[in-house]
Amino acid sequence: MWRRVTSVSHLTFAHKSTVNKNACTFKCWESFTTEIPRKEKTTYQRAKTPFITFVLGGPGSGKGTQCMKIVENFGFTHLSAGELLRREIASNSADGIMILNTIKEGKIVPSELTIKLIQKEMELSDNYKFLIDGFPRSEDNRKAFEQIFGAEPDVVLFFDCPEDEMVKRVLNRNQGRVDDNIDTIKKRLKVFTALNLPVVNHYLEKGKLYKINGVGTVDEIYKQVHPVFSSFHFEQVRV
Ligand SMILES: Nc1ncnc2c1ncn2[C@@H]1O[C@H](COP(=O)(O)OP(=O)(O)OP(=O)(O)O)[C@@H](O)[C@H]1O
Ligand SMILES: Nc1ccn([C@H]2C[C@H](O)[C@@H](COP(=O)(O)O)O2)c(=O)n1
Ligand SMILES: [Mg+2]
């Protein structure tokens, strides 16, 4: 399956017309206000149908936390762009120093490099359901992904969270990240507003965005997320 291909672009093309048609039947769903409508069921098959979810939101908005719950409930493979970049730094690769300096500055790593890491993980996976967390971070990320993969995501989740809450969470995170300090957080928030919000608006206009209220307990927030995925027709690991 995925393991045998050298590029995923031909795989992603195969099903997109169906998926996009479904996705365009609704606008931005603020799942804390309305129920998710029933949609025409499409069966996402293991062999040929990668199902791509982009997970967007500011630093500390809870993307990684909610992704863990989606993995647990729906069997997705979680690919965090930030985590892949941190792994690249830790492996002392040729790009490691540049990535480290970029992350310390709260800036965005060149798109082609991040996409190469994501693509490699997708090709190594036997799964067909992917959560791509923290990507695209900019219009440049988004356009480069579309060009390289020749496809768009099926679903875009956006965790909407006030800045003061995000700052509080990041400063309490305690995972030893080089960017979890107040100076870098301020820079990341500026970059988020300037570069990520245009991406959010792009998917809002395309009718693919599910805006989730990122304030509340983890379970309260997940209650808004679950119906997004249960409205699609793939098997659940656990209900
Ligand atoms: N609903 C919540 N209420 C309180 N704390 C939360 C909530 N969700 C996540 N957290 C905590 O906030 C911190 C940031 O969450 P998480 O790592 O999921 O955010 P993120 O969006 O992935 O951030 P980043 O973009 O920096 O990777 C973590 O310590 C997490 O345990
Ligand atoms: N598409 C991406 C995703 C992440 N980065 C860099 C810059 C971020 O501040 C850092 C940490 O990401 P996070 O774990 O918070 O999602 O990684 C990037 O350059 N491009
Ligand atoms: Mg994260």
From TrEMBL:
<dbReference type="InterPro" id="IPR027417">
    <property type="entry name" value="P-loop_NTPase"/>
</dbReference>
<keyword id="KW-0547">Nucleotide-binding</keyword>
<dbReference type="GO" id="GO:0016776">
    <property type="term" value="F:phosphotransferase activity, phosphate group as acceptor"/>
</dbReference>
<feature type="binding site">
    <location>
        <position position="173"/>
    </location>
    <ligand>
        <name>ATP</name>
    </ligand>
</feature>
<dbReference type="GO" id="GO:0009123">
    <property type="term" value="P:nucleoside monophosphate metabolic process"/>
</dbReference>
<dbReference type="GO" id="GO:0006207">
    <property type="term" value="P:'de novo' pyrimidine nucleobase biosynthetic process"/>
</dbReference>
<dbReference type="InterPro" id="IPR033690">
    <property type="entry name" value="Adenylat_kinase_CS"/>
</dbReference>
<protein>
    <recommendedName>
        <fullName>UMP-CMP kinase</fullName>
        <ecNumber>2.7.4.14</ecNumber>
    </recommendedName>
</protein>
<dbReference type="Pfam" id="PF00406">
    <property type="entry name" value="ADK"/>
</dbReference>
<keyword id="KW-0067">ATP-binding</keyword>
<feature type="binding site">
    <location>
        <position position="141"/>
    </location>
    <ligand>
        <name>CMP</name>
    </ligand>
</feature>
<feature type="binding site">
    <location>
        <position position="177"/>
    </location>
    <ligand>
        <name>a ribonucleoside 5'-phosphate</name>
    </ligand>
</feature>
<dbReference type="GO" id="GO:0005634">
    <property type="term" value="C:nucleus"/>
</dbReference>
<dbReference type="InterPro" id="IPR000850">
    <property type="entry name" value="Adenylat/UMP-CMP_kin"/>
</dbReference>
<dbReference type="GO" id="GO:0006221">
    <property type="term" value="P:pyrimidine nucleotide biosynthetic process"/>
</dbReference>
<feature type="binding site">
    <location>
        <position position="216"/>
    </location>
    <ligand>
        <name>ATP</name>
    </ligand>
</feature>
<feature type="binding site">
    <location>
        <begin position="107"/>
        <end position="109"/>
    </location>
    <ligand>
        <name>a ribonucleoside 5'-phosphate</name>
    </ligand>
</feature>
<comment type="subunit">
    <text>Monomer.</text>
</comment>
<dbReference type="GO" id="GO:0019205">
    <property type="term" value="F:nucleobase-containing compound kinase activity"/>
</dbReference>
<comment type="similarity">
    <text>Belongs to the adenylate kinase family. UMP-CMP kinase subfamily.</text>
</comment>
<comment type="function">
    <text>Catalyzes the phosphorylation of pyrimidine nucleoside monophosphates at the expense of ATP. Plays an important role in de novo pyrimidine nucleotide biosynthesis. Has preference for UMP and CMP as phosphate acceptors.</text>
</comment>
<keyword id="KW-0665">Pyrimidine biosynthesis</keyword>
<keyword id="KW-0539">Nucleus</keyword>
<keyword id="KW-0963">Cytoplasm</keyword>
<dbReference type="InterPro" id="IPR006266">
    <property type="entry name" value="UMP_CMP_kinase"/>
</dbReference>
<feature type="binding site">
    <location>
        <begin position="60"/>
        <end position="65"/>
    </location>
    <ligand>
        <name>ATP</name>
    </ligand>
</feature>
<feature type="binding site">
    <location>
        <position position="86"/>
    </location>
    <ligand>
        <name>a ribonucleoside 5'-phosphate</name>
    </ligand>
</feature>
<dbReference type="GO" id="GO:0005524">
    <property type="term" value="F:ATP binding"/>
</dbReference>
<keyword id="KW-0418">Kinase</keyword>
<feature type="binding site">
    <location>
        <position position="188"/>
    </location>
    <ligand>
        <name>a ribonucleoside 5'-phosphate</name>
    </ligand>
</feature>
<dbReference type="GO" id="GO:0005737">
    <property type="term" value="C:cytoplasm"/>
</dbReference>
<feature type="binding site">
    <location>
        <begin position="134"/>
        <end position="137"/>
    </location>
    <ligand>
        <name>a ribonucleoside 5'-phosphate</name>
    </ligand>
</feature>
<keyword id="KW-0808">Transferase</keyword>
